[in-house]
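Recap quiz, item 2
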Amino acid sequence: MSRAIPHPVLSLALVLMWLVLTSFSLGNLVLGTVIALIAGWSVEHLHPPKPKFRRWLAIPRLFLIVALDILRSNLAVARVLVLGPNHPAYHSGFVELTLQLREPNAIAMLAIILTATPGTAWIEFERESGRLLLHVLDLRSEDDWQALIRDRYEALLMEIFE
Amino acid sequence: MRHLELLPPWAALIVALFVVIGATLTVLGGIGLLRLKSFYQRLHAPTLGYSYGTLLIILASMLMFTLLEGRLVLHELMVGIFIMATTPITLLMLGRAALRRDRDTKLGHDETVPPRPDAQESPPEMPRDLTGYGEGVVDTGLLSHGDPEPERRRGD
C-alpha cells in the first residue's frame, strides 16, 4: 500500500497472531507491531504478486462453502476407506479441466482448497493454457468436474481477487 | 481424564465427541495411507486427518481450555492455520514428483498417467478425455493382500 506498511493485511494478521499467542497487553501490542512491520518489509523484498482483495464480502461465503464441501468429502472418503481398496463401488482416476483464473494468489487459494478437500488432489497446472490435472479418488462419470469447480469455487475466487 | 471431570457434563460430552470423531478420522486416514494401492490414491488419505481431524480436535481443545481457564483460549487456531498453510504444499510437491517419475519410462511406472499435453496439438479450451488413465495399478500397497509373510512368522 505505502512504503511504511507494504503489506497491511499480512502485518495486521501477524499482530493478531502475536497477541493471541502471548497475552493482550500494551507491551505485547508494541512488540507485535514492530515484528509485523519488519516481516512486512522483508516480504516486500521477495516481490510476491500482491493480492488485491476486491470484494471482502465473498470471503466468508467462500469459507462456508469450502467448510461444508470438505465435511461432505470427509465422509465420502471415510466411506471409501472403510470399503477398502479393492471395492468395486468406486474407482479413482485423473480428470483434466481448464481454469479461467489467472491471478496467482487466487490459483494458490484454489490449490489449497482442492488439496484440503479429501478426494481431490491437485497434480499439475500449466499456467499458459490454464490446464489443470486433478486426481479424484471416487470418480463417477456423471460428475462434471469442470462445471463443479467453475461454478463453486472459481466464480467466487474471481469475485474476490480479480 | 481429570480435566473432563472438571467440566460441566454438556461440555464434557461435546469435547469427548469431537476428540473421538477427530481421532477416528485421523486413524482412518492413516489406515488408508497403508491400504490404498497407488501413490495418487494415497495422496487423498492423510487429508482426512489434516482437514476435519485437526479441526475437531482443535475445537475440542479450545472449548475445554476456554471453559477451564475462564478466558478465551485461541492458541489452537494457530495450529490450524499453520497446518492449513503447510500441508497442501507438501502434498502438491509429492503429487508433482510422482507424476514426473511416472512419465519417465526409465524410472519405472507406478501407474499409467496422462502424458504431458502437447501445446500445439489440442486447443486448451477442450480438456482431454482421460478415461482409462490411473486404473492400471501396479503398486500393490504396503499391506498387500495374500502376503505370505505373516503366515511364515506364525510358523516360527
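The beta strands of chain A are 93-98, 120-126, 131-136.
Chain A touches chain B at residues 17, 20-21, 70-71, 74, 77-78, 80-82, 84-86, 91-98, 111-112, 115-124, 126, 128-131, 133, 135, 137, 146 (CB under 8 Å).
End of item.
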